[in-house]
Amino acid sequence: MFRSDLFAGKRFLITGGGTGLGRIMLERFVELGADCVICGRRGGVLEATAKEVMAKHPGRRVDAFPVDIRVATAVEEMIEQIWATGPLDGLVNNAAGNFISQTKDLSPRAFDAIANIVLHGTFYMTNACGKRWIAEKRKASVISILTTWVWTGSPFVVPSAMSKAGVAVMTQSLAVEWGRYGIRLNAIAPGPFPTEGAWARLNPMKDDDGDRYRARNPMGRVGKPGELANMAAFLMSDEVEYINGEVIAIDGGMGIMGNGTFSNMMAYGEDDWRRIREQIQSTNATDKAKRT
Ligand code: HXC
Q1: Is the pLDDT of residue 229 over 80?
Q2: Residue-wise pLDDT tens digits, 240-259
Q3: pLDDT (0 to 100) of residue 145
Q4: Where are the beta strands (DSSP E) in 6-133?
């Protein structure tokens, strides 16, 4: 799907790049010729991922930086250290935190635990990179990983939905403010892509993903990792420089499914549809008879 040297000479930073969706995007970027930096809270996990990915792609470099993106000073220090070894060309705001809970049971600290990562951490990262790109007159691309809840909201994940909606607005605001510097910002809103960390918190009852999504997703399945990696590579590429300020869903259409008045009819079979047709035709015929 992509030229194998698409990202030759580029260097991207992926927050939370040691595991899950972050690692999936990391592997695709490196496969397409990029050098990458990954950061996250667990140094050991990051180092192991960096080593494995470099072993698979000789000649490519993956640097690992342990950091807690909730701490603005730590973010600034890390970005300073990264820049000392060379500038970045792109940032993926992938690190997140989330768990399912009734909102009435959330303490202020529970809200902060999510908002500090998703809303505050994402801003710290984006601005630390952005101001350097602007000062150096360097073009760059930012991708933030959101969810379709930024449009619809979602019960039981209110701190995440609120924080990600904030990042969606950051994406639009900075797309306009920084477009003139050649910095573009876009976001991806993935539907269900089962990864270990997210599913431990979002599917704690370990319900079968096939059962959960067969009826509730127009495509009848969860996402495949490669599909998300392709979207991220596409948006990161200079070839689509004119895409700026967009939030693009990759969810099989699940986010808009519940919005259709008749979406419940997805479960109907041919017999149901025949009965519906007969019922409507019979109503029409009665009306017509009354008119004549
Ligand atoms: C209610 C909870 C809770 C729960 C924690 N708290 N879990 N409250 N229900 N299930 C409360 C605690 O009681 C505490 O409040 C406060 O939250 C902080 O808890 P800590 O454990 O001290 O927080 P911390 O160590 O900072 O951990 C942050 C975390 C953790 C978010 C809770 O899970 C984490 O680090 N997660 C990172 C990885 C992650 O979440 N990945 C999933 C991303 S999925 P009190 O008042 O008691 O002190 C995603 C979207 C997926 O983002 C979309 C799919 C469609």
Answers
A1: yes
A2: 999 999 999 999 999 998 77
A3: 98
A4: 11-15, 35-40, 62-66, 90-93
Of 189 and 264, more confident: 189
Q: Is 33 left (phi over 0), alpha (psi -120 to 50) or beta?
A: left
pTM over 0.85: yes
Residue 100 Cα to ligand 1 middle (Å): 9
Nearest CA to ligand 1 atom 31: 97
Residue 209 burial class via C-beta count within 10 angstroms: exposed 0-12, middle 13-18, buried 19 and up: middle
Q: Which residue has the tokens 């967009």?
A: 246
DSSP state of 149: H
| Ligand 1 atom nearest to CA at 107 | 46
Instruction: Identify the DSSP state of 9.
Output: T
Q: Is 161 in the pocket of ligand 1 (CB under 6 A)?
A: no
Q: What is the pLDDT of residue 212?
A: 81
Alpha-carbon distance 234 to 239, whole Å?
8
Q: Is 228 in the pocket of ligand 1 (CB under 6 A)?
A: no
Which amino acid would we find at residue 84? Answer: A
The secondary element (H helix, E strand) that includes residue 248 is: strand 247-250
Query: What is the average per-residue pLDDT within 10-14?
Result: 98
Ligand 1 contact via 198 beta carbon (within 6 Å):
yes
For the chain, what are the domain ranges? 11-291
Task: Summarize pLDDT for 139-198 with one digit per residue, the tens.
Answer: 999 999 999 999 999 999 999 999 999 999 999 999 999 999 999 999 999 999 988 888
Fold for domain 11-291?
A: Rossmann fold (3.40.50)
d(CA 65, CA 82): 9
Q: Which residue's CA is the closest to the ligand 1 atom numbered 19?
A: 110
Following DSSP, what letter does each residue of 131-163 receive, concatenated? HHHHHHT--EEEEEE--THHHH--TT-HHHHHH
Dihedral angle of Cα 113, 206, 247, 182, to the nearest 10 degrees: 60
